[in-house]
Amino acid sequence: MLQRPGYAGGVTPSSEPYPGERLGLPREGRGSIGGLGRRVGALFVDYGAAYLLSGFVGWDALAILIIFGAIQIVFLPTLQGSPGHRLFGLTLRRSDGGWVGLWRPVVRTILLILVIPAVIWDSDHRGVHDKAAGTVLVRS
User: Domain coordinates of the chain in residue numbers?
Assistant: First the structure.
């Protein structure tokens, strides 16, 4: 443990683990783990868009989920994030930093629609849906 005067307990702020550290991501700024507020905001934008689009054609709740899934599956590999992600300054990428490809968005979206995998997180703030797909949502 590092000792440094002026800090409570003698521990420097940089010595404490942070979300994304195990993945080699920075603590703050571009490339760091996207925070909960940004994620929830992005989810509301994407779900709201699906809700509005389904309302134009008079579809039911299942249609909202289908449209939401289509938004995710189309935009994740093409724009590196859904419209909501991009609006809130988030980018989806593979855990090793590469392009997400075509199958990862499908797996991630199916698990996201099931909700439970998305609300179970690890210490890097990655939900089961991201871990299963091998992806991470970072600040752009």
Answer: 18-139
